[in-house]
């Protein structure tokens, strides 16, 4: 994927720098077009699952590309993952800002929009961690 300078509306690193932490802070990029964002996300997922070429002396640094979520959706994803792990569901993911979950490889995909959806999908009372 080719990204030109004019494709980025804004680029920044969130939070304050910490001299004791040697890990670089994440980089957030706001793009001009949603199609470009989708292409970058798709390409990064493909690259993530592609093995390094054998015999290569240099390995490329790992780059993680994720969607930026609202606070509510971030907490909803966290709570969904906790419940899915507890009940041994296999898949939890985000696409276009929406949270999805699936029990096994061939089972039906469920969309999680609210805390009530977590209750209905996972049954009984979920873990004590309200979204808001």
Describe the structure.
- This is FP protein C-terminal domain-containing protein.
- This protein has 132 residues and is an alpha+beta fold.
- It has two domains: 1-66, no CATH class; 71-122, no CATH class.
- The chain has three helices and five strands; from the N terminus they run E-E-H-H-E-E-E-H.
- The protein has helices at 34-48, 71-86, 115-122; strands spanning 8-12, 28-31, 91-95, 98-102, 110-112.
- The strands form two sheets. It has a three-stranded antiparallel sheet with strand order 3-4-5, covered by helices on one side.
- A hairpin with a 7-residue loop joins strand 4 and strand 5 (110-112).
- The radius of gyration is 18 Å and the shape is globular.
Q: Quick summary of this structure?
A:
Residues 70-120 form the FP protein C-terminal domain. With 132 residues, the protein is α+β, with helices and mostly antiparallel strands.
């Amino acid at each position: 994927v080719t990204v030109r300078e004019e494709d980025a509306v804004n680029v920044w690193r969130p939070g304050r720098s910490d001299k004791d932490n040697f890990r670089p802070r994440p980089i957030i990029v706001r793009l001009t077009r949603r199609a470009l964002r989708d292409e970058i996300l798709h390409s990064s997922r493909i690259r993530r699952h592609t093995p390094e070429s054998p015999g290569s002396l240099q390995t490329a640094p790992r780059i993680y590309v994720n969607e930026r979520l609202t606070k509510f959706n971030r907490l909803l994803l966290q709570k969904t993952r906790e419940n899915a792990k507890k009940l041994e569901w296999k898949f939890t993911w985000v696409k276009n800002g929406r949270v999805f979950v699936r029990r096994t490889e061939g089972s039906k995909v469920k969309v999680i929009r609210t805390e009530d959806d977590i209750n209905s999908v996972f049954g009984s009372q979920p873990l004590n961690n309200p979204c808001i």
